[in-house]
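name: query_chain
kind: protein
chains: 1
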Amino acid sequence: MANLHFVTGYPGFIGKQLVSRLLERDRRARVVALVQPRFSRDARREVARLPEKAAARVELLIGDVADMHLGLSGEEYRRLAAEVTHVFHLAAISYLGVDRRSFERVNVDGVRNVLELARDAKKLVRLSHVSTVYVSGDRQGVIDEEELEEGQGFHNDYEESKFRGEVLMRKAMAELPITVFRPSTVIGDSRTGEIDRFDGPYYTAFELVTSPLRVPLPLPGDGSFPLNVVPSDFVVEAMIELAFREEARGRTFHLVDPNPMS
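structure:
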């Protein structure tokens, strides 16, 4: 039986890489990508860039993880639930400039709706959920992958919303084949150099390399704080590898650099 992979968060930076690699890795599979209406043109453009035979195995569904039945029609939802074998839930809001309700709607309610699909999916083999290391909030020291609800506080609404979403996923592990991934700060592709947006570590690096040598660039702290970043291709490859491994079912994985820069 050929697999049907359902990917949310397309055509986001990681989402488009994931779809491309899934088509290469699983050459008989079909991929269904959930796309918000405002990104439909971008999604069609990304599919058009794929090799012709691979593009023919991709279907775009217009919807939203925050809406009931993912914003799909009744027929679309029933067909998806009847055929899907692997769900990759990437869709999330990470931009800190939005209000608390927006984080709640996408990062928490969206998880509930994806879990509803997973419960309705009779052929489901694996639900892969992309969380973040920042669910640990203000905790310090070594944090185990199995730890989550430890009474931590949070620096912002994004961290708290991703925490609450992962809580829902982990509670559902008793009934569903779920794997949770917690990447650290995701940067560009290590092979091609492609990046998503010019902010975060990229902005800092740009300031460093373009500042005149005689002009000191002030940086916070004493330079000993670890900067943990991971290339997007590492995250994608790890997700795909573990999504097909039975021993990864019911487990959580930190996708991080074991030896971070300062």
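note: The longest strand covers residues 30-35.
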